[in-house]
Design brief:
seven-stranded mixed β-sheet; globular; alpha/beta; 7 strands
Amino acid sequence: MAPPVLVMATRNPGKIRELAALLADYGVKLLSLADFPRLPEIPEEGATFAENAAAKARAVARLTGHPALADDSGLMVDALNSAPGVFSARYAQDRTAATPPTDADNWGKLLDELKDVPMGERGARFVCELALATPDGQLLTARGECAGVIAIKPQGYTGFGYDPVFWVPEYAATMAQLGPEIKNQISHRAKALAAFKKILQSWLKEQESGGSGSFMRNLE
């Protein structure tokens, strides 16, 4: 029997790599939006990470006919009243520009806004909301967080997004210095996905037994 298909509802290559690594042991055939080039862009119009993740998962499940796993994640900085929040990916967006800001544009703006804030007041956390939706409309969500501090300057070359400026005190390094092996153990995305472990396992068992895929109904 062919493995069940799960669509990662993203075109972001960094997220695809991380989710693929985290899901490698689950025996599913992983696709992403890169495998569906004709699908429209799904706007992120929610006020929270959870709203955006749920909207993406539901839309992709409906459009592809496969269960879809979506995440919305970002950085929340204490000294900035939890900004950039849901605007993390477009924090440095110039409305007159034809292209979205780069990762360096975003963390560069963040460092500039925190230039007068001492280290003791630069607390922050990465937040990830995951939503798993089926084509028949079922939905389950999970949340993961990773606490840290915004560094004074970027350090490291792995990862993506704000990783070069996100200092993880227990490792005395930025997320970009830790590398994927450690990051995939401690990251907000890893913690959120860990909450799906039992759900994914139950789904796989149902698929193996010829079930319809409505795995969440039995897990309420």
